[in-house]
Amino acid sequence: MGERELRTTIVAWILWWFMRLRLMWTNFKKPKRHPVFIVSDQGPVTT
Q1: Pick the residue with more confidence: 32 or 20?
Q2: Using an 8 Å Cβ cutoff, are 36 and 47 in contact?
Q3: What is the DSSP annotation of 6-40?
């Protein structure tokens, strides 16, 4: 695995976690009036 592949993997991993945490934070702050989608390991889950 070259340096470019490693860097791409790290960037993709950071972006994935950033999006996931942002989704979780948005769902956490949102009032529970309507169903929200939560990204989980099993896939999108409605709460």
Answers
A1: 20
A2: yes
A3: HHHHHHHHHHHHHHHHHHHHHHHHS-TTS--EEEE
In the prediction, which pLDDT does 24 show? Answer: 85
Q: Who wins on pLDDT, 19 or 30?
A: 19
How many Cα neighbours within 13 Å face the side chain of 3?
0
For residue 2, the one-letter residue type is G
Angle at CA 9, nearest 5°, toward 12 and 21?
35
The pLDDT score that the predictor gives to residue 27 is: 76
